[in-house]
Each structure stands twice: as C-alpha cells, then as structure tokens.
Design a protein that fits this description.
single chain; 14 strands; six-stranded parallel sheet; 2 domains; Rossmann fold; Dihydrodipicolinate Reductase, domain 2; alpha/beta; six-stranded mixed sheet
Amino acid sequence: MKIAVVGATGLVGGVMLKVLEERHLGDNEIIAAASPKSVGKQIAFAGRTLTVVSVDEAIAMHPDYAIFSAGAAASRQYAPLFAAVGTTVIDNSSAWRKDADKPLVVPEINIDAVKADDRIIANPNCSTIQMVLALSGLHRRYRIKRLVISTYQSITGTGIKAVRQLQEEEAWHAEQVRIAGHDTPTQLDNMPPHNQAYPYQIFRNLFPHGGDFQTDGYTTEEQKLVDETRKILGDPSIAITATVARVPVVGGHSESVNIEFCEEYDLDEARRIVSDTPGVVLYDDPATNRYPMPVMSENRDEVFVGRMRRDLSQPRSLNLWVVADNLRKGAATNAIQIMQALMNKRLS
C-alpha cells in the first residue's frame, strides 16, 4: 500500500505518523507531504527517514490512501485531485463534514456509511468523536431526545501555535516570579508581544470561545457538535445545545454531557452499555475518586467515561463526563482506524 500523510509536519500529522508506526503500518510506502515551506524536511519514521514532498508530488505518486490534516482550504483544493487518481482520502478538516454526499465516520459506529465508490471520507471534529462514541450504545437502546454539552478543550486542538503561546506565557511568568522572589499577578499585562493563537492569555485562564462566533451567538465549534452528532447517529431530531471552553490543558478534551432520553432508562443497564462499547472505558467510582481526567487520557486511544449519575432535576435524564486525547482518537487514530477498516473490507 501507498499511504500519504498530507500535513505531515503539523501537530496532528506528526501524531498520524506515530499511530501508523504503532499500528504496524510502517512497512507500507509512507509519503509525507506538506506545504512548500516544509518540502525537503527530514522526518524520522519506523527506523528510516522520510523526505517531505509537495502535495502535487504526492498526487503524482497515486497513493492508495491519503490522510489529510492540512486545514479546510487545502482539503478543498487537493482532496478532489487525489480522488481523481483513485486515492481514498480521509480528511480531518471541516471541509467535507456537512456535505451530504460525504460519509462522516467514527468506525465503531458507522463504517457501513462508506460505500465502495466513496473517495472522500470526513473525519469528525475531535470533541464530536469522543462524545458520540460514548453515547452511541445509549442512543440505540433508549434513543436520545436532547443533549446539553459543555466542553473543556485542550489548547492542542488549536495547534502548535497555541502550545507555544502557553509555553511562552508560563516561562515569562516563571521569570517574573524569579525576579520578584514571590508569586506575581496571574494577569500578564506587561508581557511583551509573543506567539498569540488566542485573543487572551491561556496561562492560568480559560475562556468560553472555540472557533469563530456565528451571528446567532454560538461558535463554529459548538455548531459542529450539533451538526456532526446528528449526522453520525443518523437522527436529525436530536435537540442539542453546546458551550465550548478552551482550557490550559495539553492532554485532551473533557466534556460534561446531560442526556434526555425518549424513554426511561435503567442506570445499571446504561453503565453496562457504556462499558461494553468498543473503544470506551468506564472509569467511574466516586468512592475511590475514580473519574476521567485529561492527564490520564494523554497518548491513549480510549474514550474514558465517568461521573454517570441520574439527573434528579429532569425525567429520563443522565449526566456523564467524557475525556479523550483529542490528537489521537479525536483526530489521528480515528482517521487511521477508518483506513484500516476499509483495507480489511477491500481485502475480504
């Protein structure tokens, strides 16, 4: 097989290469492609060195699969060109997710949405993937009527520039503490200009802002949770409202999810359903302080669920807490799982 990773020098692209190696796919011909400024760079991979090529060069090599993490504009430009030479594209951007003709896939839930002639497949948003995987079995059993979602999203979801912003703010504050001999104000008013991925500092801070604001007051990140959940679960009737917050965390995304079902549920059965869902770990024992946290999800592919408890204020309603590494299951791993599932289907 020839497998192209488009955006190989980016944060998610690097994780894609790591997951390919971990899943013993490194014996295939791996093509590392990126923007012109990265062409010629060397990347260590599976005991050898990959030389980064341009996207046009990658297309000319006619790969069997191309896994994209290069942004929506690049995907809109190049994914159809790969598809035209017979490549199956799995795209991690928002470019194709709302397209009715493009499957939006979490493989444990709806790999059958991919038809034999599909050449562009959309990878969902990171916050959507972990949530719908945790909810998929519950929806099949009880049917979800409404979701109220609050997310606490890692800065890695924004990319390497956000990571650098946090690192620079931490370093600058530490230097001020060293000079002053004691802790200094959290607000970094006097910090010189630096890498700014966000309109505010992220160090010792959080803000209810992920993506771009729409005219209705919601953000694009919040809208993705609405549109993508309905599409993946195959139910446009689910009522969904969401609030996204960005937090100074590197390890993964966390979500508080309130679910109202169409019918009454049994809490013990609901716990069994979640526990039996492939790719999900039920980590939930309040008596021993067992609940998911981003620090435990980092570099893991599982989706962790805890704090499952009945909503005492609303009939047929359940609260739970969902955590996953947004760069792995939320992006790279899900895309590669899609590719592996398609490989297996085409070989069977």
